[in-house]
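Quick log. Single chain, no ligands specified.
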Amino acid sequence: MPSIFLCHASEDKAIVEPIQLALASAGCEVFYDEQSLPPGGDYQARISAAVNNCTLFVFIASSASIAAGKFTLTELKFARERWPSPISRVLPVIIDRLEPRDLPTYLQAATVLTVSGSAAAEVRSAVESMLRELRRKQLRRWTPVLALAMGSVGLTLSIAVWQGDKKELKPGDQPPSTESHEREKAMKEALDLLNSGKIEQAVPAFEYVIRIDPRNSRAYSYLGYALQVSGRLEEAIAADRRAIELDGMNVMAHWNLGDALYGKGDYEGSASSHRRALEISPNYTNAYYGLGNALTKLGRADEAKLAYEKARDPSKR
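-> predicted structure:
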């Protein structure tokens, strides 16, 4: 069941209640108020845990919710720590006379929904669209490849589960060794955990992959991502750097490192890592957003604006 964190100011409760009901009727678990938060612990820790475990973060933007000192901005900070780029994970919803330019910079980088009719119906529709896109992205990441090859021993079935590792047995080839099969199985299981949002289980799963396949750069980069989402930034940085040592062209590792360094306040290092990711893959949209965020923190507004423009418009890259 997808989980939605519905961030709103108490002043907007009358508008937000129908939105909560609409999302719940769409089959979503909604973190809406203190009663729907995980039990135990202090309030701020419970909020942080709820944000770290949600599928999407919906920010109800109003004059009340963006006012200085409001706890909604703390909740937004937790969302930003989890997703340095808000694209596909954060939905800002304007319910009063605010303009998108009035929103916090982080929210401006996302697609903003300005309610024009029924807030409940429009938010539900937008959330359902985002969830469908997330599912499509997960499916695209896995491309089973079935290849039939006739050899001296008859029919051989070869399945490669990850794009970029598509291997096909040819007549006369030997089937994969048990050791190779174990590595592939462990990697798939770890990725399944990560893609389903089970971050706490994904971390030891990727650590196991690395134990049996210590030169697997991709495993280190995914471990770095999982550690970063868990808030373990120092460990994430170490994992990302090891991934880069093993494969300097691992674009995900450079992007991860940029986001983790951003979380540590190393904005120069963050910008440098995102630039390296873009050197390797000039169409890596998330790296443009990451670069823009780092440049914004460095006070280089014009460069940040250009990075955001390139993120939104591929023709400007």
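The chain has three domains: 3-139, 142-175, 177-316.
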